[in-house]
Design brief:
Layout (H helix, E strand, L loop, with lengths): L1 H14 L4 H33 L3 H41 L1
Helix pairs in contact: 2-3
């Protein structure tokens, strides 16, 4: 199954020469978005822990990190969306030709 997918991808890129920058951004954005999604439960659980421990400064620190993680998460998915759209429009036009 894995070899079949590699063959389909290689055949596609033989037909359509996509932009290496956009393809790299597509994979990079997806990987970083998934990695940042793993941090969200960590910071959320730290907030709950420090609230019950009555440590206000650590709670605010984790709230700040949670906010930054959400911003990064949405930015990476936006980057993934833009690069996917660009690659799809380019590939569709080239395949139609």
């Amino acid at each position: 199954m894995f070899k079949d997918n590699i063959k389909i991808i290689s055949d596609f890129f033989k037909l359509v020469k996509g932009s290496k920058l956009w393809i790299t951004l597509l994979f990079l954005g997806s990987i970083l978005a998934h990695l940042s999604s793993l941090l969200i439960p960590v910071f959320t659980s730290n907030i709950v822990y420090y609230v019950t421990d009555m440590n206000a400064s650590a709670t605010y620190f984790n709230i700040l990190w949670l906010l930054l993680t959400y911003i990064a998460y949405n930015f990476f998915w936006y980057l993934n969306y833009v690069s996917y759209s660009y690659n799809f429009k380019y590939s569709y036009r080239k395949l139609r030709e």
